[in-house]
## 1
Amino acid sequence: MGVRLMVVDDHRLLAEALASALKLRGHRVLASAAPAAGAADLVIARAPEVCLLGTAAPAEPGAFDPVAKIKRERPQVAVVVLGPVPSPRGIAAAFAAGASGYVRHDERIEGVERAILKARAGESAVAPGLLQEAFEELLNPAAQPDDEAQRLLGVLTPREVEVLVRVADGEDTRVIASGMHIAPSTARTHVQRVLMKLGVGSRLEAAALAARTGLLDRAAGPGA
């Protein structure tokens, strides 16, 4: 049976892509985008079974205030936070505010769906990998803070970064090839490698992930 849910995020492209994917899997999506400031009020008004609530900065003060507000007004709504790799404090803050789960925004749709179903069933929905990363960081407090954009840039070659920027600009394979002075087959190979390294299944998902993490801004900065 499909879940009555909402996808609330101020990155419209990501929210709409995720909402469409969940609709195709039989779920009833009530809304797909909203500014962060109005997220809680929108969820409270619609009262879904589960809310996927996006956050770009889980470490920022007040990042999970919308979660706390939703749980105060609609305690029956299960909130699953969708965001970048959190620090242990980020995970703790999300659950302290009342979240039922935390899902990385580059998780595959199957993982997102599992989290939704677990949250609706009243279970905690956190990927074992996230918990493992959290414990490792707690055991190694000297480690540098997570930086998702920098991590992603680290797995891409300079040429693949350029391809990603062009994909995010909406260029098709032919235009990418022309702009980079390479064969279309080579451009297609670069695009496939970018998708594989980012762990996404489509150009739309790659563009959304790049925008969400700030990777595009980093790529355009000095030394990119």
## 2
Amino acid sequence: MNETALVLVAHGTRSPRGVEMIAALADAVAEQVGPTRVSFVDVLGPSPAEVLRDITGPAVVVPAFLASGYHVHTDVPREVADSGHPSVAVTRALGPDPVLADVLLRRLVDAGWRPGDAVVLAAAGSSDPRALRDVRRAAAMLSELVASRVRIGYVATAQPRVPDVVEGLRAGGEKRVFVASYLLAHGLFHARLADAGADGVAEPLGVDPAIVDLVADRYRSGIPAAVRALSYQR
């Protein structure tokens, strides 16, 4: 039997730095689990369907999304169906997850955050209520770690916007406000956070050993289903 392939599915970005970060994440995951293919659902290719058509044997698709909205619930299943691949398992998205909350806290500390400083979780935003619910769960996880309420701001699509949340916190008397970037990689959305008026903006989650382990764990969890799907075809 061929080795079960891992297909990492990301959103896509025109930022070369963001594309390089996704590639670096895939390379780091590959060191743990073997060859890892990257695909995108928007902006650039290859698409998940194109990658899956090149794979023989079972495959596990890991959606590299921090919340499960339209891309996870609609785009990824459609791409799998369009590929015609007979033995694919799709795992749940990367987030929300306590692992990501831990990385968010470390990124905040690196940006200069100290206990007592206000925190805004900056997410891309979505029109899908399921994705917004996931962002609220992520904010709750981070709130437990910073021992204070974490407000949510969105970069696009949803309300309130990050600058408005930062302004509101300052109007409420907060002296120092930091933005936790609930984004996987650099790109236009993260660049916008520099103008949010915060005292510091944390780096995106990016390539972190804990996130590499999380992707590898998602992949391993999907292997049995992918192999079973292959056996049904025989």
## 3
Amino acid sequence: MGENKRLMLAGEWYLPDDPELAADTERRIARCAAYNAAGGAPSAERHKLLSELLGEVDETVRVRPPFHCDFGYNISIGAGTFVNFGAVFLDTGRITVGRDVQIGPNVQLLTPTHELDADRRRQGWEKAEPVTIGDNVWLGGGVIVCPGVSIGANTVVGAGSVVTRDLPNGVLAVGNPARATRQLG
């Protein structure tokens, strides 16, 4: 494994303009295209394509195309989870989605972050912070989950919310930035 990929996977600053990462991107482009084109194929065939794209995916997971990601191999999706149309999972860092999660259309799970220093940002430095979604979470349509955020089990995030900080178990959170408005159950 090359230095930039090692740094990326470790959550440290790295340069993404790297031949090994470019090859991983080409692999992802081909596998995402195959998955997104297989919308009418039998479910077993679609699951095979999805399991070739993602790091870990239970056979009961349903992902409606189009689906987009950075690499795929940093994504784990638990049993019974449903991902609606237009999901974008930028997985330069680890994305872990629990069991029985409902993800609305056009949801974005984002792990990359960029350098605040303008010179280093121009040079292309970035790093990734993991995103973790607990079991039985519901992310409404258009939710954006920012780098480094964990959402606790049984939490509901309202449509269009931007989650910039961790959310505890069992709350309803809405807004930009998303804030817990009440305890659930």
## 4
Amino acid sequence: MMSTVDLVVPVKQLGAAKSRLRGAADQGIGDADAHARLALALAHDTVAAVRASTRVRRLLVISSDPVVAAELGAVGVEVVPDGPVPGLNAAYAGGAALLREHDPAAAVGALQADLPALRTAELDDAIAAAAQLFAGRAGRVFCSDAEGTGTTFLLAAPGVALDPLFGVGSALRHRDSGAQPLHGDWPGLRRDVDTADDLREAMDLGLGEHTSSVLAPSPHH
């Protein structure tokens, strides 16, 4: 039975990432540097939760942003640039192909990079739930977001293509493509952050240290 998985986490260029969150890091001012720090912090906290997992064997971050590559590389994360085809799904598919080149028998997963309240225990539990479904002959499984419409986590069994279908309404697309939903109370895994309201909900769950630090009021105020 599958015991560990290899995960792909794409991180967009920081300036282009999370446009609906602009201003959230600086009381609505919308400074580009403050916004980039927040986007990076979301990724840092997501990655930190993944790296603490005993069920994730290998983590591959896909990003062509030099700051992301330098910052995550400095803490030992493997970062490779985006491939020739733009977009989130291409990044997931390309990353999964790289992981399978290394180990064709790997279970591979796609995780969103904006899960600042993610707890390692939630991720471990979701992977354990996936392993049970794979043992029952499921090929792909997914975790929907808090609203139930999007997807935060997609996992493919050994020998099965990842076939990522992320984007608006992706939960239904993943289900229609044959992926089975994961059922579990994992609020941090389900709370991706696209808007200020999402960020407030993540705060209520408890943010990771990087995002907390970026959002802390500066001593000058």
